[in-house]
TrEMBL record:
Pathway: Pyrimidine metabolism; UMP biosynthesis via salvage pathway; UMP from uracil: step 1/1. SUPFAM superfamilies: PRTase-like. This is Uracil phosphoribosyltransferase. Binds 1 Mg(2+) ion per subunit. The magnesium is bound as Mg-PRPP. Catalyzes the conversion of uracil and 5-phospho-alpha-D-ribose 1-diphosphate (PRPP) to UMP and diphosphate. The lineage of its organism: Bacteria, Bacillati, Actinomycetota, Actinomycetes, Pseudonocardiales. Allosterically activated by GTP.
């Protein structure tokens, strides 16, 4: 499985701000925004580029752009806090949306929104969700994408639990995972330990 842990000191510092229980919502959102830039930056490190000759004011040289910009798919609510920053780095990307709420008892994802292009064959997809816990929400999203022909999917997460990683690894076509940390475990309520709490609530308030 293709698993990248972005453990750059600046990423660790943003993640620490997010983990801190004293961090308020505006500061939490700002730290997630900045961490997202780092995750997207690393996730696109080996992306194919198109080379075009261009003129600087001084000379001719090679210019570059992404050959096949990924479809960006934030998983609402928490993934919304990654959407604008991913788009900032990849302005010509298209964006789809998936809305899921995890049932607090069963931990199963309940879908409430699905807005995706019908045909994703040949298109890379970046799924944006800060939390990979049991992996149920990410697995559900990846199945939606695979149903539309996607074969090149990257899950970008601030935090990942070993349980969620193993669940995705067991899929017939596992995604690539880019995360800032692999945490210790899940607790009995399905929360990541040490984690950061509920990423949706910490950005937008409890529902
Ligand atoms: O790996 P899992 O066990 O499925 O848990 C992870 C999911 O939980 C959170 O969403 P939540 O359901 O809390 O919705 P929210 O973003 O609206 O708060 C998170 O953003 C993931 O989507
Ligand atoms: O720790 C967790 C687990 C799932 N979803 C969250 O927002 N946080
Ligand atoms: Mg939540």
């Amino acid at each position: 499985m293709d698993l990248l842990v972005v453990d750059h000191p600046l990423a660790k510092a943003r993640l620490s701000t997010m983990r801190d229980a004293r961090t308020d919502s505006p500061t939490f959102r700002a730290a997630l925004h900045e961490l997202t830039l780092m995750l997207v930056y690393e996730a696109t490190r080996n992306a194919p580029v198109v080379t075009e000759r261009m003129h600087t004011p001084v000379a001719r040289t090679d210019g570059y752009r992404l050959k096949n910009p990924p479809l960006l798919v934030p998983v609402l609510r928490a993934g919304l806090g990654m959407a604008d920053q991913a788009h900032q780095l990849i302005p010509d990307a298209q964006m789809g949306f998936v809305g899921l709420a995890r049932d607090e008892e069963t931990l199963q994802p309940t879908p409430y929104l699905e807005s995706l292009p019908a045909d994703l064959s040949g298109r890379p997809v970046f799924v944006l969700d800060p939390m990979l816990a049991t992996g149920g929400s990410m697995e559900y999203t990846i199945r939606l994408l695979a149903d539309r022909g996607a074969t090149d999917v990257t899950a970008l997460c601030a935090l990942a639990a070993p349980e969620g990683i193993e669940r995705l690894r067991a899929m017939a076509a596992p995604p690539r995972i880019v995360t800032a940390s692999i945490d210790e475990r899940l607790n009995e309520s399905g929360f990541i330990v040490p984690g950061l709490g509920d990423a949706g609530d910490r950005q937008y308030g409890a529902v």
